[in-house]
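Dear support,

We are seeing what looks like truncated structure output for some complexes. This example has two components. We would appreciate it if you could run it in full and send us the complete token output so we can diff it against ours.
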Amino acid sequence: MRVLAAVVCCLALGACGSIGSVEAWQKGNLAKRSMSFDMDPLDDRFTQHTYQSKENMSGGYGVGGGGCGCN
Amino acid sequence: MQLKLGRGARTPDKHRTARAPANGARRPRRQALLAAALALPGLGVTADAAAAGNAPEEGQIGFKILYYQDSQPSGNRMKVIAPSVHVAKTVLGDWVIQGSGVVDVISGASPLYHSTLSGASGRGIEDRRLAADAKVTRYFERWALGVGVGRSDEHDYRSNVGSVDVRFFTPDKNTTLTLGAAVASDRIDSVNNVAINQRRTTNEFLVGITQVLSPNDIVQSNVTIGRGRGYFNDPYKSIDIRPDDRNQIAWLTRWNHHFESANATLRSSYRYYRDSWSVTGHTLGAEWVQSHGNGWFTVPSMRYATQSAADFYFDPPFPTGVGTKPYYSADQRLSAFGAVTPGLKLIKEFASGWAIDFKAEYYEQRAKWRIGGNGSPGLETFRAHMFQLGVSTKF
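Here is the complete output from our reference environment:
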């Protein structure tokens, strides 16, 4: 677990240091809804809730989803 | 609603693209236009709608209804019909309030063990789950603080959750660091009196980074850690004795790439999962958002997931293995399998701000589709059909 966290931090720091700056006026495509990680909150919620109740795997998207009797 | 395009402004219309500033000195003002580009891992069940480095300018309300039916070759299992609503609104300039609610109307049959359904025709289960959550986020110049609460109620299961998250933005808003924590407190009272006033507490933590790589690329990598303590058994299974703790780690990386020439976006993701029950899993996802102009989009998608079995899961015939270890489960969800989900979504956005969408997905879980080892033998193939119909607008 710690190794994983360390790897993430290294990747993150490396990414911050090496990526060329994207200026504000270059962000038209980035502002499209299809480029958002939150494109459709209700769809995401249904999907994650469904998989969480039919598979043992969960997590990664956020925290605070709470429990339910479905699993 | 159009507010002044100043601090806190974002592009409210996804069809509108950022234009080069008329005056270079005004560039920082226009940084707000990155908007959804920096959408972050949501804390609370609701992800932070459109939240970037600034509060979204327009309110949004969406309604969706889900139809879900799962089955195995020998018969239907559970059916869920779930209407849900989500609202997000910026108030006082820098505060975002959002909330959502869902009703799950559940009926059908659930396996007693492995894929053996309860009763010849399936002992009926009828239940209703009500869940709601709310979150308040305060945006500052270079950071944001969010606090959320949520509750989920069934007649045999209740969960209360609270969460807090902090996000830090670099001055160019190309990088966001997210830290989050949540506590969920659950109470289980099964109708068959197997579980009476049983409790479970789960602490969750998140570290995430979101990075703009190019004008057409954005990536996000989150690690979440969950530590659950308390009652994990399934009281409706014939025999189910699980550890009273579970530690989970999930590492999710998402990458969105926009193809300008095709007017399409590829949304891809990979998640690594591992927990203290010895389950290791991999999940791959891809969606292709194809714009056809005039507000029409088609979104074909594919997901593949595979997991190993929990170390206390025993293969059929039931109840082989009972008593050989301190713990025992014959829950299909703890078995080793691979699963695929092809899907197709249609979206139509109107100039008025209204949008409608329809999504159809098919899920199939099979032992032989596992990658990285053998799947668990002796289980029926598990299938589910999912349909979503949604409508949303801005205000």
